[in-house]
Give the backbone structure.
Amino acid sequence: MTGRSRYPSSVFVGDTFCYFSGMTFAVVGILGHFSKTMLLFFIPQVLNFLYSVPQLLHLVPCPRHRLPRYNPKTNLLEMSTTVFKVSDLNVLGWLCMRVFKVLRLVHLKEGTREKKDYVECNNLTLINFVLLWRGPTHEETLVQILLIIQVNIISAFR
């Protein structure tokens, strides 16, 4: 199955397998007392959660789909964005966006559309962050970068 699921994938294992494999990791980690080792596998997911908190708590508007946008003209993935009014942000949301902008963790474009009170920012996910850092990227390259991040995190704690 591994050979068939490489890019371009001819097999999609589906949600059920993803849930099953995740629970298998969790059960093995708990029963085998590998909780610290298992945490290493989940660090990218924890980082993704922490980066996504402003959208998950609705401090910043959160669209239904936050996956990267596919550009058929270039055959590349681009970071997905959300557009909202500045007035839609509360003080905490505005502060989060300013801090993220200073730390270069977000692409914040002010004054979009006809009126100047609209703001456009990338969706806050690890995948979109990689696209922010790297620029538009082919899907195969993006997957390799994400796997390299995973391997480097695990290797850093060996």
Remarks:
- The beta strands are 69-71, 76-78, 81-85, 108-112, 118-122.
